[in-house]
Write a structure and sequence with these properties.
It contains eight helices and no strands. It has 225 residues and is an all-alpha fold. It has one domain. Helix 1 packs antiparallel against helix 3, helix 3 runs antiparallel to helix 4 and helix 3 packs across helix 5.
Length: 225
């Protein structure tokens, strides 16, 4: 069996060292942004504790808050363990989609609307910065597990359940998290039209998140996907 030249071994060793350093940097950045996200999520509840104007149940009923909680979990677990199992990578992909939805919906529909995040730095963290960080993490440190289009579309179950939850809870507490989910102003017909528009848009987002993850894996691992 022919032996590789010494220079080839050195090149391979250098590539391994570079990859390990890159993984270490990614883990450190995940930890930093996980702590940053956790502080942003806890800031308003802790500051508003005991206030009659603040409802923890309403706060936790925002899709932004729920998706960012998942993002903090993904970043923290990725920093500590970085599991590569199929179930975890599906969870990562789903969380990335929810953060992408959060960022896009905020930019398009909610940028000038009060969604209980009056502090500018918290608004920026949860609606702009962390969605970008989670998406970049998905591309720079992609899944080694190939995720099919059908599996990526299954990520839409959570947004669908969230929409149903909001519509069921809304009349009970007389409060809706977002104007486009509030039938009191627009009626159920317009709400249905909005849902018809949102569903294919989110399906395209799910496929796009999966696609950029595959591109990242092809670049990182030099694998045909």
């Amino acid at each position: 069996m022919p032996r590789l030249p010494v220079c080839e071994y050195r090149r391979m060793d250098a590539a391994v060292v570079t990859d390990l350093r890159g993984q270490r940097i990614v883990r450190v950045l995940r930890a930093v942004f996980a702590v940053y996200g956790l502080i942003a999520l806890l800031w308003i509840p802790l500051r508003s504790a005991g206030s009659d104007d603040f409802s923890l149940a309403n706060y936790l009923s925002y899709f932004t808050i729920e998706s960012n909680i998942l993002a903090v979990v993904v970043l923290l677990v990725g920093a500590i363990r970085d599991p590569q199992s199929r179930s975890w990578q599906l969870f990562r992909g789903a969380t990335t989609l929810y953060m992408v939805i959060t960022g896009i919906v905020y930019a398009v529909l909610l940028a000038n609307i009060d969604v209980m995040l009056q502090d500018a730095w918290i608004n920026t963290a949860l609606h702009r910065l962390l969605p970008l960080v989670v998406l970049l993490d998905w591309v720079v440190a992609p899944s080694r597990v190939r995720i099919s289009e059908a599996q990526s579309l299954s990520w839409l179950v959570f947004p669908a359940v969230y929409g149903a939850y909001s519509l069921i809870r809304g009349p009970i507490v007389d409060w809706y998290p977002y104007p486009f989910l509030d039938p009191r102003q627009q009626g159920y017909l317009q709400l249905a039209v909005t849902a018809v528009v949102f569903l294919p848009a989110m399906a395209l987002m799910a496929l796009a998140v999966n696609a950029v993850g595959r591109l990242g894996a092809r670049r990182r691992y030099d694998e045909d996907r």
